[in-house]
């Protein structure tokens, strides 16, 4: 086997006096991963050829021949009848070579007025725009699932935590809508990112534009871009949009990781707040009683790879001079894996969340532990005219008594409570119950069941439901 390949086989080989080293050819090739861009590459090429014909660079006959040839190449790829060649380096040159093989010299005219630099920048933007739309759809599905579950559990009382210690009673529906709020912000970031993705670099050529009389507005319109880019140097070297998407993904995955942590805790025997369907769990090879929450655990673990991809892309771009550099070939694998990881995680959660079953009695029992209505007692005393700091001390002493007697505040008698303050009356028990505690927080953003339902209605309106 020869360790070198003829330079004359390369579309750029005219400049070179010796062939590419075989290892270097394999090392620098991107076809192993960028072939997934074939659909967007062909879509971009069809638009480019159409534009060239409209401005008179190609004849209508040549344009039709190129477009039909590209469609045939796409059909071959989709049928699995396409041999990707490492010697042709990337998705663009593989497709162009196959096109030329099919239609002859006219295929070589397709690349007029463009470069692989603006071509790949366009391909990635087309790809990412489609993936953003898919991601947005999955985000909406998950948000709707959370709202449905929150409405169903609007009256279910559970302990709210700070420092993972029982703090105050909340409703399970309110807790779920806290997750919703995180995802709503993620959605805003995603859609804002899409605006900056939806700018067309095609026509920037290698870095300085082209001398051909192209009309970039035609191509942008054909490809559904909002507008052509404004600077040819920036157009071919910009990867901000990929970094921005990966930044969005890192924050989204951080939120899903936080959800996962709570689901893992809640399914444990120690909490036993919820049940996940068997189809989202696995068992143990040695312990027959185990039901492991593998989906939340795996999603929690995947945030690390997405965070790593963000750092990878930031590092990739931090020292690059204008304009395009070969370094940029390294943008695709982190971006592709980020997209795949986010879509998979969202799909798993969108399928799983509606099937979560709350164990309401266990949640209620847990909410009665840890003196969760102590703040309500302090607020009650304040309404009776006691200064808050004094009220805080009074309740602290009552809690200490409860710990000693192994009694929750709501289980104490009036005779047990009045020695702590003569401001305590019979109506105190209205605020010491779990229901009284959550119902009292009946303001926008509060945990009262009526506010959970109102928040759910606002969420549905925001989602266009």
Automatic annotation (TrEMBL):
Membrane-spanning segments: none
Main location (coarse class): cytoplasm
SUPFAM superfamilies: L-aspartase-like
Pathway: Amino-acid biosynthesis; L-arginine biosynthesis; L-arginine from L-ornithine and carbamoyl phosphate: step 3/3
GO terms under biological process: L-arginine biosynthetic process via ornithine
Domain of life assignment: Bacteria
Assigned keywords, A-Z: Amino-acid biosynthesis, Arginine biosynthesis, Cytoplasm, Lyase
MF (Gene Ontology): argininosuccinate lyase activity
Cross-referenced HAMAP family: Arg_succ_lyase
Family to which the UniProt record says this protein belongs: In the N-terminal section; belongs to the lyase 1 family. Argininosuccinate lyase subfamily.
Protein name as catalogued: Argininosuccinate lyase
Organism: Tamilnaduibacter salinus
